[in-house]
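User: My collaborator sent over this chain with a note saying "see what the structure looks like." That's all I know about it. Can you take a look?
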Amino acid sequence: MEFLEIREEEYTKFRDQYKEKNFWQSLEMAKMRKNSNPSWDYQCVALKDGDTIKASAVLVSLPVFMGKKLYMSLRGFLIDYDALDLVEAFLTELKIYLNEHDCLYFRTDPYIDYQDHDLN
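Assistant: Without extra context I'll predict from the sequence alone. Here is the result:
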């Protein structure tokens, strides 16, 4: 598998077919941040197996200190969180990517249930 930046069209196509998507994970949200403050930037990244995207995310970034950047993945990644090998591979490659791109701090808040609730 290969971790790389992908085109916006590829990301949008993958996101649109993904069942547990969220507006925060959209390109529109990343573009809205950039339009409100030009210092913000964004990249679409993915873990691909051949031509098939297995996991993806939009990373928004902001320069914060001496060329270092704050990176965020709003509401987490588009990934099957139950496939632990896939999550581990994605996070391992993401760490390498962030280190190569002057990341000072990375924040994410995955869109997954912390605990199941019922009426009781």
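A starting point for your reply to your collaborator: Strands lie at 2-5, 41-49, 52-65, 68-73, 103-108.
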